[in-house]
Amino acid sequence: MQLTKEKFIRDFKDAVHEAQLIKVPAATPTEAFVSLAKVIRKYYTPLWLERNRKISEDQKKVAYYFSIEFLPGRMLETNLLNLGILDTVKEGLADLGIDFEEVKNAEHDMALGNGGLGRLAAAFMDSLATTGYPGFGNGLRYKYGLFKQRIVDGYQVELPDSWFGSIGNVWETRKDHDIVDVKLFGNVYLQANEEGRIMPVYENAQILRAVPYDVPQIGFGNDNINNLRLWDVEIPEEYELNYPTVADRRRVQDITATLYPDDSSYEGKELRLIQEYFMTSAGLQTIIQSYLKQNRPLENIHEKVSVHINDTHPAVAPAELMRLLVDDYGLEWDKAWQTTVKTMSYTNHTILSEALEKWDAELFKNVLPRVYQIILEIDNRYVAELAQKGVNPETIENTRIVKNDQIHMANLAIIGGHSVNGVAKLHTELLKDDTLHDFFVLFPEKFNNKTNGIVQRRWTQIAAPELSEAIDKTIGTGWRTDIHELRKLNELADNPEILADFYQVKQDAKAKLAAYIKETTGIDVSTDAIFDVQVKRLHAYKRQLLNLLHIIKLYWDLKDNPDLDMVPRVFIFGAKAAPGYHFAKSVIKLINEIANLVNQDASLQGKLKVVFLENYNVSLAELIIPAANVSEQISLASKEASGTSNMKFMMTGAVTLATLDGANIEIKDEVGDDNIVIFGMDKDEVYQHYANHDYYSRGVYESNPTIKRVVDTFVNGTIPNSASEGTEIYEALITHNDEYFLLEDFEAYVAAQAQIDALYRDKEKWSRMSLLNIANSDKFTSDDTITQYAQDIWQLEN
Ligand code: 26W
């Protein structure tokens, strides 16, 4: 959109006067932020209205991305950048004596997600708007997002994330117009109606009101605005008498109160099931209503609507759509089923079996009695159809939805949809060959890969403005709109001046992070050191502990030989652990205690520093990632479905130190073997261990003195204040046979780290590697990923 600085200043002043009844110079950053948001809303509202009008006038097919998590982080700067008015606004504010950074920091992260899955959903929203495809989000409006993490005495403490604060969500619009009701609990029986149709009769159901709040998703440079619809729950006025006490009301409000903070294991909690159903049912109801306005037959809804199931959390969708089509709109079962399968598609984000959702049939039946009946019917018909085709009984049993009194949600998503995708090449292969092999044999045509991506604009132009300027200076600004132009940097990678420029940009980013580290932890770190970073959720399979084992080895090397010739290293961690995940919390405690140990030891001469930054979130990632020299992506091969931070690090010039897992493999393919450091077992070697049952960690421990010394450090009193956590870790590694093969990969990891040290000493060589990583990162733009979803899975037009 077009905007002059003068007009902006006038609008902004007016907004401050009107909203705060104060003059601009008196406005606090929060007041300035609220007023700025009001001004921006005024700018985009006509664009948003126009977009909605156009989509319905053109009767375009729309994809709805159903996700229990969306993790956009802050929206202000993205919104301004995408509207094309970021520089104008920054200049206008500067004229008024207002620091844009302060205003920006007044916005609370929108953290309605745990990690990769939620961040990916937010990235897809941005990219859908940017590519111009009509793709809308559908999720929950949690009052509290992912917990705020504080570290007290080295331990993680969780605090509620009250992100609404006193100002609420400045971007959202409540849409009373689209309110719907959602039914839970009660009894259902079937009865013939006057026309002889068998209809469900509900008794004593709880009826809740679903209220949508729409958050605009602004496309980059195209004035295109899509919709992220987040549902809140309310008690319908007419049923108020059913909720006489505060406790009664609270039980309802709980449905949208908090995001479940667990991304490591599935928990069969009733409230979670209600959350999942609530957003799915409400979303589908409004989708049908808006489709019907086009006066088209419901049995063709797949021609104008796609519903995407992001992981299994919204996987009740095929059954709920069947319920709506058959019960509420009177479609024949077979017709309804055909259109349902054509409408639905599903992405799997993990092969960890403990994270695959299964519901106890009893619990499910109690909460969703009618949907339960429908699932049984889908399951019966599925089994009968396959049996009739002569499929062997074992395959049928493996793939059916209801068995052993459990409902397998992934199976429902696969059977009830036409597409199943993994999120990186290796992950999709593993799904086909292993996790979902029986499905792949039955329905090979449903399977496809969609390697994840990132919103390059956030990780370059917003998080790394100095890097972006350095790129502008070398290849011009075209890459800002067409990321593939980054490839031009490949030709410049031998130019020493350019390399020196980029080196300096990284040094400046490191200085910024160093200042933050000093301010928040008191630890001094030198920008001459290698900044070696591992930031992600804390999980055993991601192997933060392997990183720690190497740190302990370095510690002993330096204690043995204080003059050891090594490039100084700062190991930086950021990680939240699921509140109930004991082992993960013990690892956090140990990282912090080891940090205390090494940071205070003068004999190490500052060569080794360990920093744990609390409350890792999107905004902190924007500070940390551009400052990294080394990107730690060291999960056990086969376990990390894709990873997406690996892509962000690459794009901002870190060198990846990685196992052949997830998208690391594709990063290696893009950047070439010389510009990445790979180590450890590959997926086949891991699977061979599983098949042969031949791994014995105690044997490795007893026969390798270095490993023994490192592991013993956890239990011999070297690390203060962590006896019980140290024992727990020792036992995981030795008594419980080291589930993620840390000891097996240890030596390879140490060697890879030595290689990093050697490479970094040659400044020019390192800078070249760094630049080549940036130059070849364009493959990972989520704009291209979403284009593939839109074309291959959803068949959309932009
Ligand atoms: C049921 C509890 C639960 C909740 C969330 C289990 C598992 C999850 C998610 C599937 C975990 C997740 O975020 N997976 C990550 O998805 C990213 C986006 O595709 C991938 O890049 C990561 O590799 C994958 O771990």
Automatic annotation (TrEMBL):
It holds the Pfam family Phosphorylase. Its cofactor is pyridoxal 5'-phosphate. GO terms for molecular function: glycogen phosphorylase activity; pyridoxal phosphate binding. The modification N6-(pyridoxal phosphate)lysine is found at residue 648. The keyword Transmembrane does not apply. It comes from the Bacteria. It is an enzyme of class 2 (transferase). It catalyses: [(1->4)-alpha-D-glucosyl](n) + phosphate = [(1->4)-alpha-D-glucosyl](n-1) + alpha-D-glucose 1-phosphate. Its EC number is 2.4.1.1. The keyword Transferase applies. InterPro entries: Glycg_phsphrylas (IPR011833), Glyco_trans_35 (IPR000811). CDD domains: GT35_Glycogen_Phosphorylase. One of its GO terms (biological process) is glycogen catabolic process. GO terms for cellular component: cytoplasm. Keywords: Allosteric enzyme, Carbohydrate metabolism, Glycosyltransferase, Pyridoxal phosphate, Transferase. Belongs to the glycogen phosphorylase family. PANTHER family: GLYCOGEN PHOSPHORYLASE, GLYCOGEN PHOSPHORYLASE, LIVER FORM. Phosphorylase is an important allosteric enzyme in carbohydrate metabolism. Enzymes from different sources differ in their regulatory mechanisms and in their natural substrates. However, all known phosphorylases share catalytic and structural properties. This is Alpha-1,4 glucan phosphorylase. It comes from Streptococcus ferus. The gene is malP.
